[in-house]
Each structure stands twice: as C-alpha cells, then as structure tokens.
Write a structure and sequence with these properties.
The protein is an alpha+beta fold. Helix content is 21%, strand content 34%. It has four domains: 93 residues, no CATH class; 296 residues, Zn peptidases (Aminopeptidase, 3-Layer(aba) Sandwich); 156 residues, Immunoglobulin-like; 95 residues, Macroglobulin (MG2) domain (Immunoglobulin-like). Bound molecules: zinc ion.
Length: 677
C-alpha cells in the first residue's frame, strides 16, 4: 500500500453549483498533483453509448470546463479534484445528460475493477476459522450474513443482530447491537458505527466486522472493553450498501461500485439543511433514517476509503461560514483519533487533507452527506472516517488498517460516556420527560440534544468548561441551571425534575453502599436540582438483607423511600449478611439467620443452623445497641435451632430492633420490626 497522501474527495459530493467554486478554490488549495493510475484512453462522447452499458463509470474531465455548469452535480458524483482535473463517478442514467454538455472526458479504470485476488471466503471457509488476528479476507455475501448471525449465536448475552431493511436488490442491511442486555433498551449512551455506504470502499466493512468480534471476544477479559460495553449501547452496521459491494455477484467484491443499484450515491442522498438531494430517497437511505429515528444515537462515524483522514461537520459549509457549536470538541476528539493512529502507524498513513484532520466543508463543500444529516437533524455527533487511499483495498492489507485504527475506534466510542449526562422527569409523577437540553448562546444548527423515553436520559459529550443549561419541555416552564462544570474525560450526571416547586439550584447527591446489594439511583455522585423528589430503592443481594439507609447521619429503615432534595446529601445503604457461623477449625459454614413472620407477630420465631456445637448467644437489641431481650445464652448442639419470640413480642414496645446470633468467633444479625400489639 502506498502511504503517499492523496487528496481524494470520496465522501464529498459534487453538487453542480459547487463546481464553479471548487474550480476556483480547491485548485488553489490543492496544488500538489495526485498520481492517478489506471488511466485509460479517453472516450469521446460518441463512444459514450457503448460505455453506458457499464454499471458505473469512473471518469476525469478538466475542471475548467465545469465552470458555470450548475447542474453537473445532478449527473456525476465528484470523487476528487487534482490540479485542473476532476475525477468523478457517473451512472448509466446520467450518461446522456452528461454527454449533452460536450465536456471532453476520459474513462479511467474503475476503483472496483481490481487486478488482484480479493481472497473471497465462503461461510464454510470462515465458520471453523479462528478469527482472532486473522481478518485478511473478504466474505462472500452469504458468508457475511452468516458471520453476523454467528456473533449472536456465539455470544447471545452480548449480541443481537437486527435486519433493519432491504436494499434495492433485496440484500439485508444488518446491525449488531452489542450490549449487556441485547434486545433491550438501557439507560446508557447509544453509539453507532457504519461502513461502506460507498460499496467499493471496503476497508471499513472488514474493520467493522473485526471490531464486533474484538469487543465481544474481549468482554469479561479486558477491563476497558468490559467497562465500555457496560456503559454504552454499541450498534455496528458493517455494510450499508451491499448492492454496491457485491455488484457483480454475491461471491466477490471485485467489480464493486460506489453507488447503489439505482446508480445513486447514497452519501449524497440524505436531507440537507442547504440543498435537498437531487435524487429521491433510496431504499437504503429510507431504511437508515427510519431506523435511526427511533434510536437517539449520540455519537457515530461512517467509514469510507479513497483517502486517509477524519472529516468532521459540517460538509454543507466551510468553517468560516458556519461551524458546529461544538467545533472545538470536534477538534479535540478528532485530534485524539488521528494522533493515536499516527502513534501506531508508519509515517505517511492518515495524512490526507489538513494532515489527516479537516472540517468537512474546508476540504470540499458537499450536500446530502449522512454526516450532516445526523449532526443537523438528529443531534448526533457523526464524523467521516477515510481509512485507506486505495478504495477496494487488497485483503492482506486489512490487518494493517486494523492495527493502525482499532485503539482510536474504541477511544472514540468511549468519548460518548464523557461530558454531560443525566435524566429529566416530572417531579409529581416521577415519569421520564422528553425535554430539549440546550446551552443558550452556544447551541445552533442542531447541536442541542433531547432526553428520550423510557428513561428520560440524555447524554451529551462536551469539551471541558462551565456551561449554563436550559431544560425545556412542553407543558413545563423552562428550567435554567447555571455554572455546570464539565471536565475532559469525565462524566457529570445532572438529574432534573421539572414541575412546580423546583428550581435550577443544584445539590450534590452521593450514593454509597456497605455490604452487598443494589441501590437506585446507583452508586456515585450526581447533581439534582433543588426541590426534586428523590426515590430511593434498595435491593439486597442473595443471602443478604437490607439493613438501613444513613442519610447525612440520620437512619431510615424502609428499603423504598422518598427524599426531597433541598441540600447536599450523602446517602449510604447498609446491607447485612444474616448468618455466617465460623468454625475456627478448617471450615466456614454460612447459614441464614431468619426471623419470621417479620414484621413480628405473636408466633414469630428466629431460626438458624450451626455446623459445630459450641456456646452461642441469641439476643435482641434496640437501634441504639442496648440489649432488649435475651433469647438464648449457652451451649447448643450442631443443627437447626428454632426459638419463639413471644416473650419479646409481648413485653417490648413497637419499633425497629436487631436480632444477633454470636458464637464460634462470628456473629450474624437481622433487622426486625415490631409493629405494636
Ligand atoms: Zn466514500
């Protein structure tokens, strides 16, 4: 593979009205000639009809001749401008229209027409292969589908495969959901990777498959990967345009095309804030839009080939015209991506436009890209990742591309867990609310985010800084929260109640656990607005029991309770282990100390089992630790013992008490409640 930086514009559409500007601007900023191989003899317009029998042509023509031809973008998908030549794809349905302009052009060898063996593998070839470290092949189409479902079969607790819809030809567009609860929604950020929207740009196809395999086979072994899966809902679609990739035949990627079967460039086919697509929405585009509309993805990337760089929003404007509100955050995460790649790759790799990092429109303005659709309409931070100068890359080079990129791919997913997170809910009902969460004076062009049901959660990556935030929802007054401090590589949770009697003043709530059990809200620190009602819930682990809450030093004994937030709170849930009788010899026997019925009745008993004979003390204490009653004190044989509590029941007043069994060097306790007679 050559690492000579090429200035390829594969993801940058050539809308006609732009060509005038491109011819004047881009030629000036791209003085270096690009070596184009495979140049064929030029065809005249006369022989074009013959060429039009082909599925898609790759052509070049002089940029100067494109000046003033505003409709050209309807006809060709501009791939690259080099010197005074434009390189573009053209589909059969556009041949006649293009020819009518009389522009002299040359037909080049199509990037999908490869002269090497793509190392195609059938499902039989792949199924028994140890895939770890062996991703140097392309799967046949059916093998790709089988491989995706095999991930689900092998790791059903981590993967679910979704077939979100069909291509023009009827091939499947597949997503792998990687989650600790596949098939379910969780209160975590949703992240998406997709690849090969241009069917002949195949590096991302294999990298995506390998990334799925890497994550699920390292879950539970690699702490960083395990934590990533725990904290993120990861969705990966390895091939958005299988009709393009398998254009010739399901058995090979040779002959792959950029466009879909209708000859449409799908990365020019999305709704756009400036200029909607020329072509009607294609099935592949409709499927992706309707699926992602339901998902509230917060970060994503779309993998391409043809050059080596990262390209962040917007494509529709140069950065001196309009910028993403989080432009500096984009520069920060893109710099992290590229610097990490450079650390693990030979010099020259990923050094395209801008040294490998560019604002989309500064490289080349484009309309209808998926990147702008997600950023502008879906509040999702998406960038375009260009993985290899060679579009349909030789299979033996795929492991190198993986090695250079996989750390960056994982780091980028991890960024979705940093920044501002939280929930929005109705303070009266406790129901989650779909609210708009925006930063006045900062947000624009679709950068504000929304909280989503069923959890009311929101997730927003943000650069370190102090932010003022507004929470708005229909039927509620806007709530202003000032001075929220965000740190890089950290997560801050701000939980907001909307409704009467709340304010934007924030209090810190710290949840902690002693013993073994779960609490809701889960452990950690988060901020709540003043007046919020906080519902606490404690659930003991098996063989453990909830003992009490300690809230700013005060004790509470109901596992489910409500707290009104009007100050900073430190909340501790204490769980106790009912019985552990310790044999100081060689064995430890665990057994449950049980009191039932509890709350106490006249006939309640305490029951426990001991494994060795010895001296034991069974007594009841009040919450201040004072002994309220002795049930037994003395020698006991090994075995199960059951003792009535009627004497205690009849002589002690209502309240919370603790039964304690001690002896053989260990003690065990259980909380009981006396409701009064
Ligand atoms: Zn592309």
């Amino acid at each position: 593979m050559s690492y000579i930086p090429e200035r390829h514009l594969c993801s940058q559409p050539g809308r006609g009205r732009l060509l005038l500007k491109l011819s004047m601007v881009l030629v000036l900023i791209m003085p270096t000639a690009v070596k184009v191989t495979g140049l064929c003899n030029g065809l005249t317009a006369g022989s074009f009809e013959k060429a039009s029998e082909q599925k898609e042509l790759y052509i070049s023509f002089p940029v100067a001749d494109a000046q003033g031809i505003t409709d050209l973008g309807r006809l060709v998908s501009l791939d690259m401008i080099s010197g005074d030549s434009a390189y573009a794809y053209i589909s059969p349905h556009a041949f006649a229209g293009f020819a009518s302009y009389g522009i002299p052009f040359s037909v080049l060898r199509h990037p999908g027409d490869i002269d090497f063996d793509p190392a195609m593998r059938s499902w039989d070839d792949i199924r028994n292969k140890d895939l770890t470290g062996n991703w140097d092949f392309y799967p046949e189409y059916e093998a790709y589908v089988e491989l995706m479902y095999s991930f689900q079969e092998e790791f059903p607790e981590l993967v679910k495969i979704y077939n979100i819809g069909q291509t023009v030809y009827g091939r499947d567009i597949l997503f792998a959901q990687i989650s600790e609860s596949p098939g379910e929604r969780r209160d975590v950020p949703k992240f998406m990777y997709t690849a090969t929207i241009h069917g002949d740009e195949t590096a991302g196809f294999i990298l995506s498959l390998r990334l799925i395999h890497h994550i699920i086979s390292n879950y539970g072994k690699d702490e960083g990967i395990t934590e990533l899966v725990r904290n993120t809902d990861i969705w990966i679609c390895p091939n958005e345009n299988p009709d393009g990739t398998y254009r010739n035949d399901n058995s090979t990627v040779a002959g792959a095309t950029r466009s879909n079967l209708n000859g449409v460039d799908l990365n020019r086919n999305y709704p756009n804030p400036v200029n909607d697509p020329w072509d009607e929405l294609q099935p592949e585009t409709e499927v992706m839009i309707s699926f992602t509309d339901t998902m509230n993805f917060i970060m994503s990337a779309n993998m391409h080939g043809g050059t080596e760089l990262v390209n962040f929003p917007f494509d529709s404007w140069r950065s001196d015209q309009k910028r993403h509100a989080d432009h500096k955050w984009w520069e920060f995460v893109m710099r992290e991506y590229v610097d990490t790649v450079h650390k693990y790759s030979p010099s020259g790799y990923m050094t395209g436009q801008g040294g490998g990092l560019t604002h989309g429109g500064d490289w080349y303005v484009v309309y209808g890209s998926r990147q702008d659709y997600f950023n502008y309409y879906r509040s999702c931070r998406e960038f375009t990742l260009e993985l290899s100068n060679q579009k349909l890359i030789a299979s033996e080079l795929l492991p190198d591309i993986w090695e250079y990129n996989y750390r960056s791919l994982i780091n980028y997913i991890r960024q979705s867990g940093y920044g501002l997170h939280g929930k929005v809910y109705d303070n009266a009902s406790g129901d989650p609310i779909e609210a708009v969460i925006s930063i006045p004076g900062h947000d624009e062009l679709g950068s504000e985010i929304v909280s989503s049901v069923p959890f009311g959660n929101y997730n927003r990556p943000l650069l370190a800084g102090d932010y003022n935030i507004v929470y708005s929802a229909e039927g509620y007054e806007d709530l202003f929260v000032e001075g929220v401090r965000i740190e890089d590589y950290q997560r801050l949770d701000v939980v907001i109640a909307l409704g009467p009697q709340v304010s934007g003043e924030l209090h810190s709530i710290v949840m902690d656990v002693e013993g073994e059990g779960y609490v809701d809200p889960f452990q950690g620190q988060r901020l709540y607005n003043s007046g919020a009602n906080l519902s606490l819930e404690a659930v003991a682990e098996e063989n453990w029991e909830f003992d009490r809450w300690v809230i700013n030093g005060d004790e509470f004994f109901e596992p489910d309770m409500e707290v009104s937030v009007d100050a900073d709170l430190e909340i501790l849930a204490i769980f106790s282990e009912p019985l552990s009788v310790y044999d100081p010899g060689t064995t430890v026997t665990k057994s449950q100390l049980r009191v039932y019925p509890n709350p106490l009745e006249q006939n309640s008993v305490v029951s426990f089992e001991i494994s060795e004979p010895g001296v034991f003390h069974v007594a009841i204490y009040d919450v201040w630790g004072k002994e309220a009653a002795t049930i037994h004190k003395g020698f006991l044989q090994a075995g199960v013992h059951t003792m009535g509590l009627w004497g205690f029941y009849n002589h002690i007043g209502p309240g919370v008490y603790v039964v304690r069994l001690s002896g053989a060097g260990r003690e065990s306790v259980q909380r009981i409640f006396h409701p009064g007679r």
